[in-house]
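Hi C.,

You asked whether I'd gotten around to modeling the 609-residue construct. I have! Everything is below, sequence then structure, no commentary in between.
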Amino acid sequence: MKNILELTKERPLIFDGAMGTMIYSKGVFINTCYEHLCITNPKLIAGIHQEYAEAGADVIETNSFGANRMKLQGHGLADQLEEINRASVRLAREAAGGDALVAGSVGPILKSGQVFLDNQADELAETFREQLAILADEGVDFFMLETFTHIQEAQLAAQVAKTFGLPVFVSMTVGVSGETEKGRKIEQIIQTLENDGNVDGIGLNCGVGPAAAYSNAERALPLTTKPMVVMANAGYPQEVDGRMIYMASPEYFTEYAKRMIELGVRGVGGCCGTTPADIDTMAKSIKSMTGVKKHVAIASYTSQEAPKVDVIPLAEKCGFAAKLARGEKVTSVEITPPRSIDLKPMLAQCQTCKDAGIDAINIPDGPRASARISPMVAALAVEREVGIETVLHYCCRDRNLIGMQSDLLGGYAGGLRNYLIITGDPPKLGDYPDSTAVFDVDAVGLTQVVTNLNHGMDVGGNPINPPTGILIGVGANPCAVEPERELQHYMNKINAGAEYAITQPIFDPEALLRFLDAAEAKGGSIPVVAGVWPLVSFRNAEFLATEVPGVEVPDSILERMNHAKTKEDGRKLGIEIAREMCAAISDRVAGYQVSAPFGIVDLALQVLE
């Protein structure tokens, strides 16, 4: 297996979660020496390691955090130091097998409130050396020196650790303000570790929950070229019946972990309060992210290798495409397929939209990974029975490449001409957490598949004549956490053949305009349809701001919505804000895709009046 430094260059890694939290949850008293359990209750420790391995952790940490002579003396266990440390490695290695790395966990000797004194250095160094030598001899893959608050002690431990020839990660603990208890700022800490030749990787762990950990990572990443690992707590604990319980959900924890990966963090895991459930949700989500998962390579057949076919021009693909080609504003309303087999209410909503002059019905594919009636079946019914065009979302989550191609060909044969190609939400973030995601390709790869079909070639390089004439739409997120990464992803879609884009709901016109300027500077000039969401209440706005990936709601909008005291006031204000958004971006977009919150189509239509 490659070492930790090689692996972090290839992909972000998933670290395991809390050990102490899990031990405590098994009924072990807090005054017990948790490291001693490696020899007194190895089955318990092995079971916890195994849970994290099965949850998808790429790195399993040894249960040796406080297994140094000074800490063990407090429990009267100093004479068992070697046995404890060796057992900690064996238990972790057994769970890791050949699929995961084993990190030798070493914590600080000094308490956070103590002062590091130079005359202590020799004793501390010898104490670290004794533990590190055992962990190295027993075969850890690298050292994780974690939860340090004194930078001098961390550097001393790293200096000793480096003598054993293994990669050394140093992980510091800072508070919400980005400072240690002694007031040292995160910028000073990172610069010091960046310049320390004994430190191969840098970490932030413990002390804060996911949101604050993300903020600290934002400050730290620009200051280092070394791989960074962030292991946040599960939020802030609350006392419930005498126990400290962490109230944050795995989905909340995962959302911030994904944002950290998008920032450039190369490893994420959990500290206090986290469990295998957090790691499982996080692992499934992150391992399916574009740039992390290895997708099937899709060749382009749009050059001279393609058969001689009559490629259908944009203006002839469908009415929606014709308006885009003429530079006229297009409009669509998003209507979600029902959770039942009765399509009549949906068809009635679509008829209302047609009567109002809307160009197309936007039909999402399993939004938030929930199960509804097939969006393709719904789209076919809408076009057949209502006579209005549809924009069918098609995601890469649920089908393999062969199945997706079959759907595209079948849908086209049935009359569907307009697809919005998206990667899709991992199932763990939806209603069916035990479902598995396929993700043979992402939105870029599937866009290339459709482009090939439009040029008369299937994914295997076999000719298809006549070719399809699918209008290829893709998603865009002007408010992405990492703008440059999103912009490059957007350009990759355009290069793969995207003909227009629909954005995430826009609440900050300036963010959209910056994105469009940046895309145009790179040659990414395709028509962009702006996503618009009429808010209905402050709670609705708050949910979008905190829980929906890719949507940013400015504080000024939240403050305005907070002034709405009744349901009617909330809806009226939401429509007003949506109209303001449309007006602010009118001269830069090709049209509007308006959502119908909670299925209330009238709200969307009022925005477009």
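If it helps when you're writing up: The radius of gyration is 27 Å.

Thanks,
B.
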